[in-house]
Design brief:
By secondary structure, this protein is α/β, with parallel strands linked by helices. It is about 45% helix and about 10% strand. The chain has 9 helices and 5 strands, in the order βαβαβαβαβααααα. It has a 5-stranded parallel sheet with strand order 2-1-3-4-5, sandwiched between helices. Helix 4 links the parallel strand 4 and strand 5. Helix 1 packs across helix 5.
């Protein structure tokens, strides 16, 4: 029997493999989600734009699932686009990729993705990951907000985390929704350097992704004037 208790959460699934699209879409819809699909990044951006221009907030997806290695627009380029747009910057993103090296995972997460799954994967695993993220965080407030929404679960960080002056500046810009490339340009350093700072902060805090890091920065009153 099809489940219908997901509060009509909307997901956007982007992949150029029609077989994977059908399989994952079926699993997610069986669990009660509404799923829109796209074959490439430009088509996905058009879907987001159309959703933003409607009067229904439900047309903006609650989560995006994106095949990292796409021919027209890879995951990093797509992620940079939506993280620069305040309408979409808070949408959680899961990357799907055949790349299994740890550095690829670090790059994906520090670039702004919320999770990285290696393909092939079990569809049940993806569904569980989607449900976990949506249950834990729901729709996070815009990253530029300095106020914590009462319906968002606070992130848990053990102990008093000490950030270096540079890390403090970086996390403020992350919380404002800037991509690593933009932060690197501000500091006149390489993007890899910024990715390293983000990775270090994730390690210090025990958090899993930039979304949680951003939320923690807001909750911890670390958004000071730069």
């Amino acid at each position: 029997m099809k489940e219908t208790n997901k509060d009509n959460k909307q997901l956007l699934l982007i992949d150029d493999d029609p077989n994977l699209i059908l399989l994952v879409k079926d699993y997610l819809e069986f669990r009660g989600y509404r799923v829109t699909t796209a074959e490439n990044g430009p088509e996905a951006l058009e879907i987001l734009e159309r959703g933003a221009n409607t009067a229904k907030a439900s047309e903006i997806p609650d989560m995006i699932i994106y095949d990292l290695m796409m021919p027209e627009m890879d995951g990093y380029a797509f992620l940079e686009k939506i993280r620069q747009d305040s309408r979409f910057s808070c949408i959680p993103v899961i990357f799907l990729s055949p790349e299994g090296q740890s550095q690829d995972k670090i790059t994906g997460v520090t670039a702004g993705a919320d999770f990285y799954m290696v393909n092939p994967f079990e569809p049940e695993e993806l569904v569980a990951r989607v449900e976990s993220f949506l249950k834990q965080a729901g729709r996070l407030p815009k990253r530029t907000s300095r106020h914590h929404s009462s319906d968002v679960t606070p992130v848990q960080v053990q102990g008093n985390v000490e950030l270096t002056p540079t890390e403090l500046k970086v996390v403020q810009l992350v919380a404002q929704g800037l991509a690593n490339r933009e932060i690197a340009a501000k500091f006149n350093v390489s993007q890899r350097t910024i990715e390293s700072h983000v990775s270090n902060m994730l390690h210090k805090t025990g958090l899993h992704n930039r979304t949680e890091l951003s939320q923690w920065a807001i909750e911890s009153n670390k958004l000071l004037t730069i």
